[in-house]
């Protein structure tokens, strides 16, 4: 029996802060919790640059949130945080019980990413596996997505619902503005 | 000749982050820049706890912003940042050329503030003068305001326009959620 598509309107969108190329160590990650068009909370934590703790940190931020019970969806601005801290979206989906959608404005150059990972990044083979396992970047509407735990129709309806001021879903647009504004003193506009 | 009330829809709202009672030194201040209902940018800086640099820091954040040319209004969550770093709203109005509105949910206990300033805070007499010069807290709608550079009718229309998800104007509600979320890891709900 096929279930009706869920109406996913309570979402947290995560983005990482910009950092200097020479920076080593931790990088700020910001989560913007939305109920429909309303910002309900802001979450923050840190992940290791080019590290492997992104999945765990995001799962913990969600688990600790007072809004945990309301959340229906996790949105990510790209599958990697803080350089090459690649998120295991299947594991994040399992750990939180929530569907996970990676959103990108452009189709990423997977060949270039694969080469960079395998040639320059510690543990790159494992990180590349996580990207491969997340599946192809599907064009939906005006963006590209990878998804875990929800169907294409649900993803499409969700993207339309959250395309409030941009094709980028509002929780991600806001998380991006916050992360940039806190680290740089003023956010840059485009995500 | 009386001018028509201006329609003030481009605003930055500033709030300070929570801090530990034992904390000395700088405290995060966050500005949320809105065009109508849309968050356009996030600004951030620091002010000294119980210090006197709040007015200058806010004026600089506004002056440096790429959105400076669009801004029509500055909103403050209370007249003091970081404890007793009292903002000179007349000076901020003159420095930026923008009207300034201090918004509070409750009528502050001015006697208690005066006592605390005069008895416990370095430079308290000067800070108290700034509060006095900012004028009485006027009840408008569901909040109390002090204002510099705009009339009561303009303030009332602006408060109504920005009462999107709360009686607290949206730029201040968002600045509060961001400041708390960045410093505490998760924002608290009420401002």
Structure characterization notes:
Two copies of one chain form a homodimer. The first copy, chain A, starts with 9 loop residues before the first strand and ends in a 7-residue tail after the last helix. In chain A, 49% of the residues are buried. In chain A, the strands form two sheets. A seven-stranded mixed β-sheet of chain A has the order 3-2-1-4-7-9-8. The first copy, chain A, has six helices and nine strands. Chain A has 191 residues and is α+β, with helices and mostly antiparallel strands. Chain A has helices at residues 54-64, 89-96, 110-120, 124-133, 152-162, 170-184, and strands at 10-16, 26-35, 38-48, 73-77, 80-81, 85-86, 100-104, 138-140, 143-148. Chain A binds chain B through residues 28, 30-31, 37-45, 61, 64-66, 165, 173-174, 177-178, 180-182, 185-187, 189, and chain B through 28, 30-31, 37-45, 61, 64-66, 165, 173-174, 177-178, 180-182, 185-187, 189.
